[in-house]
Amino acid sequence: MVSGWHHHGDFETSIYVLSGAVRMEFGPGGSEILETGPGDFLFVPRAAIHRESNPSGIEAEIIVTRSGTGEPVVNVDGPEPG
Fold first, then answer.
1. Which residues span the domain enclosing 29?
2. Beta 12-19 vs 74-75: how paired, if at all?
3. Domain count, the chain
4. Helix (H, G, I), strand (E, B), or coil: what is residue 25?
């Protein structure tokens, strides 16, 4: 599974990984990569363009919380060029 490129507008997002793995791509040209596993937390700042995937064969179970207002998901063509 790989999501499309998107951001969460004025929402800050916190993610806790219960099982499986989550790979987050972000930054200029999508060049920054963060890989997480069970017990890890991820923080996604407001308006941060990113996409996530599950690079493992194990189903990812996560807990997601968001704080903010407006549209919770804004799809975009991709990250800013690198």
1. 6-75
2. unpaired
3. 1
4. strand
For 82, the enclosing helix (H) or strand (E) is none
Nearest by Cα to 8 from 66, 53, 57, 59: 66
> Residue 42: which CATH number?
2.60.120.10
Tens digit of each residue's pLDDT, the chain (82 residues):
899 999 999 999 999 999 999 999 999 999 999 999 999 999 999 999 999 999 999 999 999 999 999 999 999 999 988 7
Greatest CA separation for the chain: 34
Q: For residue 81, tell me if it sits in a domain.
A: no
In a domain, residue 64? The reply is yes
As a whole number of angstroms, the distance between CA 37 and CA 35 comes to: 7
Average pLDDT, the chain: 95
The rounded distance, in Å, linking the Cα atoms of 71 and 73 is 6
